[in-house]
Amino acid sequence: MSPAAPTPKSKPAIPRPSSSVILVSPRNEVLLLHRVKTSTSFASAHVFPGGNLSAQDGPCPPAEDLKRHDDGRWYRNAAIRELFEESGILLAKDKISGRMLALPEEQREQGRRAIHQNQITFAEWLEQQNANAAPDTEHLIPFTRWITPANNTRRYTTQMYLYFLPLPADATDPVLGEIPPEGQREEIQVPTSDGGVEVTEARFLPASGWLRMAQSGEVMLFPPQFLLLHLVAGFLDKDPGVVNSLHELQRRRDELTEFVATGQPPWSEKCISPKMLKMSSDGRAVLALDQPGPELRGTDRQGEPDRVVLVKFERGSARDLEVRWKKDAFEEKSSL
Question: Domain Nudix hydrolase, which positions (predicted)?
Fold first, then answer.
């Protein structure tokens, strides 16, 4: 009897292009959305606004083109559009005057529904509001790309961005009036093709507040959101006893922006595809962040070599997250 031929390995699913925005409020808080448990991705979790690219965002390079995994106008357009669809916050400006558009909430809500139901594109709706309107893609700061590990059946190549809403002295009253104060919830119901609800609420909180809630089990964050909030909190929330003057708010923003441009490679260019290294002594998976994913293997793209994320995955949930230096995670093993 001849030996059975080896079962060929199935190819990883092609990652779908998507964008997300880490939106920082005039009070240096971060916006997260709570996804419902029926969501196809990050179900029940708190996430940054964002979603898949669509044809209206512009032609994204095909799957075989490595530029598909680079920052581009299609990713930036999708980030602004998805933020508007999911949260109602409009980041658009008049191309002639340079001023940000400030539209009444009712007008924006009508636009969100029409765009989400494919009655009109985001660009067409913007032009109806102002003939010179354009998405404010210029102020999106790239802040890592994430490629879903190859063993997942549903994969994404997600460009993350950082965007700072104007500080109070520079913002118009209509814009500030729409932003909930600290801890206040804004109920968000986004219509879908089947009339369901994707997002139950949007909420601004300090990044450190989101981290504490995740560690106490009040909210669920997945590793990409947890790591980026951890990094943001290190700048926007340090020295909590210091009065948040406009000067101090801006100084912290400047330090975060400088940090994003540092590193080997810079955080603006890191491409991360998490990979489990080992199990920690308390049963959590230790995720390496240094690999860019199978699509970019053999290229010069790199991830984050110095940090790891510890997490306990259980029936589709992510709990007990922690960011550690990689060297410290392995020192624990050698001391056992």
Answer: 14-227
At 175 the pLDDT is 46
With cut-offs at 50, 70 and 90, classify the pLDDT of residue 200.
confident
Residue 69's nearest CA partner among 161, 159, 138 is 159
Residue appearing with tokens 């669809």: 85
Q: What is the DSSP letter of 315?
A: T
Q: Which CA distances in Å does 171 have to 11, 208, 247, 255, 256?
A: 49, 24, 15, 21, 20
Q: Is 21:79 a contact under the CB 8 Å cutoff? A: yes
* Strand blocks (E) in the chain: 16-24, 30-35, 46-47, 50-52, 92-94, 133-135, 141-147, 156-164, 185-187, 199-205, 271-272, 275-279, 285-289, 304-314, 317-325
Residues 291-320: tens digit of each pLDDT: 999 999 999 999 999 999 999 998 889 999
- Residue 8 pLDDT: 57
Q: Rounded to two decimals, what is the model's pTM?
A: 0.88
DSSP H/E element including 226: helix 223-236
What single-letter DSSP state applies at residue 156?
E
- If one counts every other C-beta atom within 10 angstroms of the C-beta of residue 218, the result is 10
Give the pair of three-digit tokens for residue 296. Answer: 């970019």
Distances (CA, A) of 38 to 133, 157, 169: 35, 22, 41
DSSP-derived 3-state class of residue 40: coil
Q: Do the Cβ atoms of 53 and 19 come closer than 8 Å?
A: yes
One-character DSSP codes across 276-305: EEEE-TTS-EEEEE----GGGTTSS---EE
Is pLDDT at 119 greater than 70 in this prediction?
yes
User: Which domains are present in the chain?
Assistant: 16-331 (3.90.79.10)
> What pLDDT shows up at residue 124?
96
CA-closest candidate to residue 201, choices 216, 180, 227: 180
* DSSP-derived secondary structure for 60-109: PPPTT-GGGGS--HHHHHHHHHHHHHHH----EEETTT-PBP---HHHHH
